[in-house]
């Protein structure tokens, strides 16, 4: 079981959370779909924000929308050694901050330091500097975060921005009908996320980070999504990484499900 107890390295997607209209309904949906335990917050300072766990390890967050008119969505956070230094790098690269970096504290102490930003290609993401809370403690396991990828309206602009801010290097995994890049931390061989063009995005939807959760069976997960009031956005398909689909929850938030043990075909070079 892949677990982690230390802060994630700078530039690694390390946490995801859902902003929803009805957080109780969202907690019920994901508990039934992914086997999460989601307890109601006991600290008023949490502002209704709940931590979902699997096997007693944090896997994701669920909280109320900061603005009522925004769509329900899954946000990707990227680990930073220093939130303040990363904020400066984002502004220098042409990005914009939604707020200045701030500490997240509850009765249990300082969880971390964070902020949200928008990149030059229009994609929005969070930055998390770990303290007591490192982000995901369980990953690449059914019910846990498996992958984060950027679907960009301007991939060249997005690639340049994230490379300048986080120092990413890239492996080009593109094929005849699609463009897809694996991004890596500087000097490392293992990729930590992906970037692709906007082929999957409906008209009018800006560049967006997509969250993927691992499941035991992708077919069973897709059937469960429909049973619980969600819908399929990208049909089931096989790949060397696993059987996968893109779905939406009952409140409209989009995410991917992937059966890592159901991989088919040759892994790209």
From TrEMBL:
Q: SUPFAM superfamilies, alphabetically?
A: Glyoxalase/Bleomycin resistance protein/Dihydroxybiphenyl dioxygenase (SSF54593)
Q: Which Pfam families match?
A: Glyoxalase
Please report the stretch or stretches of sequence annotated as the VOC domain. 12-130, 144-260
CDD domains assigned: SgaA_N_like
Which InterPro entries would you find in this protein's record?
A: Anthracycline_SecMetBiosynth, Glyas_Bleomycin-R_OHBP_Dase, Glyas_Fos-R_dOase_dom, VOC_core
What protein name applies here?
Answer: VOC family protein
Cite the source lineage.
Answer: Bacteria, Bacillati, Actinomycetota, Actinomycetes, Propionibacteriales
